[in-house]
Specification:
heterodimer, A: 346 residues, alpha/beta, Rossmann fold, 7-stranded mixed beta sheet, 5-stranded mixed beta sheet, 12 helices, globular, B: 337 residues, 6-stranded parallel beta sheet, two-stranded antiparallel sheet, 42% helix, 10% strand, binds thiamine diphosphate
Amino acid sequence: MPTDRKQSVQSTSRQLTVVQALREAVREEMRRDEQVFVLGEDIRIGGSFLFTLGLLDEFGSERVLNTPISEAGFVGLAIGAAIQGMRPIIDFQYGDFIFTAFDQIMQQCAKLQYMSGGQVSIPLVFQLPTGASGRGAQHANSVETVFCGIPGLKIATPATPYDAKGLFKSAVRDNNPVMFCVHKHLYGSKGRQLAESSISRGHVPDEEYLIPLGRGDIKKRGQDITLVANGLMLHRSLNVAEALENEGVSVEVVDPRCLAPFDTDLVINSVVKTSRLLIVEEGSERGGWGAQLAADIAGQAIGFLDAPIRRVATPNVPIPFSPVLESAVIPDEARIRSVILELMDH
Amino acid sequence: MRALTIRLPQVPDFAPLDAYDHDLLREIYRRMVLIRQFELKVNELFLQGVMPGTIHLSLGQEASAVGACLALEAGDVITLTHRGHGQALAKGVSADSLMAELFGKVTGCCRGKGGSLHVGDMSVGALPAIAIVGASSPIAAGMAFAFKRGETGQVALNFFGEGTANKGDWHEALNLAAIWKLPVIFLCENNLYGVSTHVTEVMAIDYVAERASAYGMPGSTIYGNDPIAVHEAVKSAADQARAGGGPALIECLTYRRGGHKRDDPGAYRPQEEVQAWLRTDPIPAYRERLLADSRFSLSAIEAIDAAVASTIDASVEFALASAAPTTESAWEHVYAD
Ligand SMILES: Cc1ncc(C[n+]2csc(CCOP(=O)(O)OP(=O)(O)O)c2C)c(N)n1
C-alpha cells in the first residue's frame, strides 16, 4: 500500500472537501475492522459537521451510537471499550465541549497505558471541530493547543482533504488516543463556511493510502523564509505566500499536520535553506505549539538563522463575539504578510 | 438507544385568575408577548442576513421563563441556557441591551463580547448565559451556597433543558445542593428534544423530576405552558428555599415552536406531536383567560401588544445605531483590576 503518496496528475482527479474525505475514511475503516464504531451526539443525523452522514444506513445503530449529552460519561465508556479491544471513534459536536470530560481525557485516557506498565492500550479517536467561527468565546477554542501539554495523546490537525483522509485512517489504526482536530472553517460541510484557498478542496485518490502520524508536509516550496502553519492558518499563510511570490518573496510553507508527534526535522531542513522562520497558529500566543517549536529550533538550529524567530498567534484573550473583534484578534492575511516583510527586511 | 415514544400535551384545567393581583397578571402577559415579538424579530433579522452569529429561539417556551422569573424577588439570580433570550427578558434584561448584544455592539449587555449564547445582565440578577450544557448547574448551586453562607435570603434558579439532565455536572450539582440544603431551584424546561434527540430515547424513566427523590429533594412535573402554574410552583419552592428548606426540582412540560436553532427545520419530530403541541401555544391561551376576567378589556390587551411592538422596534433602532466595540476593547476584562 502506498504511503503518503501525492497524485501529480490532477486533471482527472476527484475533488473532495475535508468532510467528504473523512466520511470515506471512517466508512473504509468501519468496513475493514468490525471493532471500529462511532459514538456521539446527534450523529444519527450526521452530527454537527456531517462527519457521520449516511453511516447509520450502512452500519446500523449499534455501530453508529447516538448518545445522551453526557461527554464525561461517554468518553469514559469509550475508554473502557477500547481497553477491552474495541476501537471507538468519538464525534464531538464542537471540540469545545471536550473540556466537560477533561478528567477522562487527561487523567484516564492519556495515562492508563503508562500507569499500568503497558498492560492496557487505548485506541480511541476524538473527532474535534476546533477554532473560532463567529460564535463567541465558548465555541472558539483552539483545542489542539491544550492537548500539547499532555503526554500520552497524539494530536493531528489536518487542513486538506488528502491529509484528512490519510491521517484519519492512521489514527483509527493507532493504538493510542488521537485527538483529531479539524478547523470548523475547513470541513466544507453543507451550510458551513469554507475557508477559501488553493488547497481547501482537493484531489483524493481512489486507491487506499495512509499518512503516518507525525510526518509534516511542504505545501509550497520557497527559498527566502520558512513559514510553519497549521489548520485555518495554513490556508491564510498559503494565500499570502502565493501573492508574495509575484512580488519576489519566496516563502516556503510547511504544514506540520500533527502536533504530537511533531516533525521538527522537516522544519530544521527548511530553515537550513532559508535562514528565516515564522510560525503562525490560531491558538493563544502564550503556551502555543509555536512557542515549543521556536524553542526547539533555537536549541537545534540557531546557527542557521539570520533573523529572530517570529510568531503570529492570537493574543492572550478569550475570543470575543463581535465579528469586528473576532477578526481583530485572530491572525489575518495582512498581519501574516507584514511580519513576513519585516523578517525579509531584517 | 430506546425508541422514541411520542409525547402529546396534556392540558390541565386552568385555575381561575380572580385570586391573582391585576398587575402581576398584566406583567406576565406583557413579558410573554415581549419575548414572542423579540424572538420573531430576531428570526426575521437573521433571515435578512443582517444579524451575525447563531441563535436558539425560545418561541413556545415563554410561559415557563416568565412564570418562573416573576415568582422570584428582584435580588434573586438566574442562570441562563444557550436558549436564553426569553429567560433574559423574563428576568428584566432590557430589550435594547439584549438586541444590541446580538448585534455585537458596545451597548450590548455584555459589551458585544458575549453574543446570543452568553446574554445576561448581573444588575437584574441574570448571570450571562453558559452555553455548555450542564455546566451552569453547579455554578447556580455555588451562588446559592454564597447566599446561604451570607444569610442574604436570596435564591438562585437554574434554567436547563431536559437533555441536560443526562450530564454528570448536573447530577453532581443536585447532590451538592441537597446535602448542603442550598437555596437553589432547578428549573427544567422540558421541550422534549435535545437538538434532534427525543427525551424518551435518552431517559429510561418518564420524567426528569423523578430524579429529585434520588437526591433527596422535592420534585414536581407541571404543565409548563401555563405561566400561572409555573409561577405557583416556583413561588412555593422559593419560599421553602428561603426558609432553609433546601433545593427543589421543577419540570415544566413545554415545546419549541421551531427547530433547535436557526437553520434546523426540526424535521425529526413526528407531525402528530408537533401539531398537537403547536395548538397549545401559551400566549393565545393565556390571553383568552385574561379576556374572560372582567379586569381586562380587549383594548387594554391590545395596548400592551402595541407598546411591546414599539419597544422591539426601538430596540432594533438602538442596536443598529450603536457603535461597534473599539478594537482595543478586545484586550479589556481579561483580568479583573
Ligand atoms: C456539553 C455540551 N454538549 C453539547 C452541546 C451542544 N448542544 C447545545 S444545545 C444542545 C441540546 C440541549 O438540549 P436541552 O438541554 O434539552 O435544551 P434545549 O435545547 O431543548 O433548550 C446541545 C446538544 C453543548 N452546548 N454543551
